[in-house]
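User: Sequence for FAD-binding reductase below. Tokens please.
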Amino acid sequence: MNARQLELVVEHVADRRAPLEGAHDWHVLVVLADTQGAADMEAALQATLEEAVEAGLIEDAIVANAPSRRCGA
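Assistant: Structure tokens for FAD-binding reductase:
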């Protein structure tokens, strides 16, 4: 989702907010599911995100692992 698309959602859909502080050109929503357990999956996601930040592939990330941390909640 590009920045303008996110702006439109925030402006026109009730109770929605940007997931990250600051301006970003692109946002990616990833939904994961696994049969081996949430802890293994969360650890793999965390390691992947850390590598991507170190490589300069992403600027910022947030992991919503509880409904209260999801946008609009």
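The chain has two helices and no strands.
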